[in-house]
Amino acid sequence: TRVVLAEKLDEPVELAVLPGERVLFVERHGYVNLYSPATRRVKRIATIPVSTKYADSSQAEDGLLGLAADPHFATNGWVYMYYSPAGPESKNVLARFQMKGDSLDLGSKKILLEIPTQRLKCCHTGGSIAFDTKGNLYMSTGDNSNPFASGYAPVDERPGRMPWDAQKSSANTNDLRGKIIRIHPEPDGTYTIPEGNLFPPGTAKTRPEIYTMGHRN
Q1: Residue 61's CB: how many other CB atoms inside 10 A?
Q2: What is the spatial distance between Cα 41 and Cα 207, in angstroms, rounded to a whole number?
Q3: Could you read off the pLDDT of 156-186 as tens digits, one per residue?
Q4: DSSP string, 150-178
Q5: Residue 49 and residue 42: Cα distance in Å, rounded?
Q6: Which residues on neighbouring strands pair with residue 137, listed in sequence order?
Q7: pLDDT for 133
Q8: H or E segment at 76?
Q9: 74 Cβ contact list (under 8 Å, min separation 6)
Q10: pLDDT above 70 covers what percent of the chain?
Q11: CB distance 213 to 143 below 8 Å
């Protein structure tokens, strides 16, 4: 039996089921919403300022893109979000926030990762977040490259063609775009590197957070 919990949403992208069968979910334009089974209603509990346009004013794939609850949410209230902060700096961030009851404390924000991006041209952003049974956080990132230039692979070394060249991102061992990232969040808002990632910590010209690479979106 299908039961509709919410409708007429604005690009919902990811959700987390919380204790008490509450459902936290986010919409790409920065809206954080909570469905409560007690009231059978959806309430917008926060709005995170995000970038949703490219430099040429075209609609971007950026915004509020990923959400996951901490494995110990019942005791710590932590949720993780991946989003494109509004402002002139081209980047995406993975941040931790704390929920208190049915409210999200935006002042509790702790940024775990900042990933520089290009906001000149379309596209491929990614952003889904998941945890494993060991408390490791997995996050997907798109290659931040335009695939529509030539009909071939996104490799273009000509001047001014950086947005069309995925060698900067998914093919780059020293860049976190076009990857699945695996880290272990720590209580103080930092993270450590689990054993078994693609590159051992300290390997030259690599990022130890990379679990797999070569992905599009």
Answers
A1: 18
A2: 43
A3: 899 999 999 999 999 999 999 999 999 999 9
A4: SSS-S---STT-GGG-GGGTTT-TT--TT
A5: 20
A6: 131, 183
A7: 97
A8: helix 73-76
A9: 19
A10: 100
A11: no
Other CB atoms within 10 Å distance of the CB of residue 29: 13
Give phi and psi for 214, each to the nearest 5: 90, 25
**Assigned token pair, 104:** 């999200």
Within 8 A by CB and 6+ apart from 126, the residues are 65, 140, 141, 142, 215, 217
Lowest average pLDDT, out of 54-58, 112-116, 165-169, goes to 54-58
Residues 6 or more apart in contact with residue 8 via CB below 8 angstroms: none
Tell me which residue has tokens 């070394």: 157
Tens-place pLDDT, residues 23-32: 999 999 999 9
Q: What is the DSSP string of 112-125?
A: EEEEE---SS----
Q: pLDDT tens, 34-51?
A: 999 999 999 999 999 999
Q: Tokens representing 179?
A: 């990857």
Q: Which amino acid is at 194?
A: P
What distance in Å separates the CA atoms of residue 33 and residue 57, rounded to the nearest whole number?
27
